Amino acid sequence: MNDVSYYNVSREVFPPVRELDFSKDCEVFGEWVATVVAPDPWDARFQQGGAVSVVWRFMMSALDDEWRHPHGPDLAPLQFYNQLSQWYFEQWYWRIVRRIDNDTLEYETNPDFVLAAWDVPQSRCPEQYCKAIAQTGNTDISGIGEAVMADTPRQIHTAYYVEAVLATMYLVAFTVWRLREHLRKRASRRGGGGGGDGHQKHRRPLTGPNSGWAGRILDAFRATVSSFLSMAMLLSLVMLIAAIKTAAQKSQIRRIPELSRDVPNGSALYDISLSLLASTFSVFPVMLIYALMRHTGGGKEEGHRQWMSRAVLALLWALGVAEMYLAPRGELDYDYRHSGVGQFDCDVRGGQRHWRGIKAGQWMVVGAPLLWVALAAFVVTGFGIPGVADYAWVRRWRAAWRLAVAWLNLLLMWGVLAYFTYLRHSITATAGGDRGADQSGRWLFGQILALSTWAPTVAEWFYVLFFGMKEAWSTKMPEGYEAVRRRDNNDGPGSSGGGTPGAADMESESKYDAAMGAYYYGSSSSSNSRRESDQQQLLHGAAGPAVIAVGSSSPMVPEPQAAVGSVPPPYQTPMVTWDAATNSWKAVSDDSRAASATWQHPDGVPSNWQHQSPQQQQQQQQGQNRREGTPWDQWESTGW
């Protein structure tokens, strides 16, 4: 034993490897595996195969005490470590398999060494083994590039929750607002315009400067919902594009044997799963907020914005379908998806459940949006079949349709985010937690940077809350424009399009330059087609306020207050004038067959009326009468 030979070291100095126990020290085993599977920093196609100092400790951990100390003269320790290294490399580079190029050879490892040093310790030290191969989260896809959001999914994980919480808050606020509007309108209709004595208690408006803190909070949500939707659309669009790019790259790598590894390193195993979940999650906040936005009753400019939003939604749907069908082909084990046997160690995706979930997701991504479009078309138009859209049950569904869609998207959004969180936690725990390769529990630079994505929306929300919607909108408008409140008869739960103003309409300051006189408040879309129920709703149920910008030179007339009487039926169209003597608004019937009578409305003048002079109103009505053949006095008594 003292005469040490440098040839056939494994047979003359050390015992056969199949007789050794390499699982005595699991920590050393895990450290050795980590250095073996780590990619070569010079050429990522290859693995390092181990570090010399770690190899010494790993090989010595399997030896008994009598083998750990060299026998011989003083120089024996150096000779011993040389022999130890030679013994290891004899096992690791057992024989040449093939020549890759002039300078690179592919070797096969001794099967006995693989069994004793890898397979057996792997089953006895599973925690250290999984930590060593470091199957971590993706380092690029969720970040969508350095310019948008950090560089790891853990760093934007918090941003996902911020987006989900904000979307939930918007939905709750809009649900409360619309339910309050609906209950107020129903109470007004049941009250018959003021109860038995013809008078009705004045209610504080739901929103606006005089609505209290509850109204200010609602105004803050309504004023910022458009910017939140724009940011959510941008985020979803970029994430889907990044996910598709990653899936295409992984699909190409999977088909090239030279680029594949028996033990995937880093995030390779979970790249596709995390990118698919992250990009899918990003779509649901967009659908949720879009369902709350107003989509009817706007002008030409608002119609352009609506079609732009619809175009973005169609693009998101197309990208989502492409990602859902392309992503599975980028999975490393895609060719073995029907085998029923897991191909990789420490895989937390769930085996066959993972593939069944992808198949269900493909059907959902394609079918659910198409079903939504079909149902929406039926609820709003009745597919063009005469009378179907006016059925009572269809009208009830129309009133709650958008809120129902929004709440369904909320459940799906939180479900996907919950599974994403579960998967991330499982990956982190398997990779050794915060002390391992995955640092998801630490607040890094990118994680803090990710929170800035939603900072503008949150800042705008607080600005509207403390300073009001008028000032918030006025600061965004060019010189010569000012934001003032108006009422919108389509702004409520009963409207087909919902009631959420997404932006301000603007009129030039040259409008209403005439001298102030008596102002008539009449319907902005007067016609004879409205039903009696609609008349009662307009007279006795105030709709929610919206925002409109008009010229700063418009006459500063105080808002009409709830007046002092009731217009007897069938006279539903009053004349509203400013009484300088009493310094208040007065409303009287303008019908020649009725005596002048004041009237009352719980929130002042009906919500869909806008002021015009009597001369302007008369000219407009005479033109309409000529077109429709309706006598002036008949139109006035029957309403709109």
Automatic annotation (TrEMBL):
Q: Which keywords does the record carry?
A: Membrane, Transmembrane, Transmembrane helix
Q: Transmembrane segments in this chain: where?
A: 159-179, 228-248, 268-290, 370-393, 405-423, 443-467
Coiled coil stretches, renumbered = none
User: Compositional bias (Low complexity) spans?
Assistant: 610-624
**Region Disordered, annotated ranges:** 187-210, 484-506, 587-640
Protein name, per record: Uncharacterized protein
Q: What species does this protein belong to?
A: Thyridium curvatum
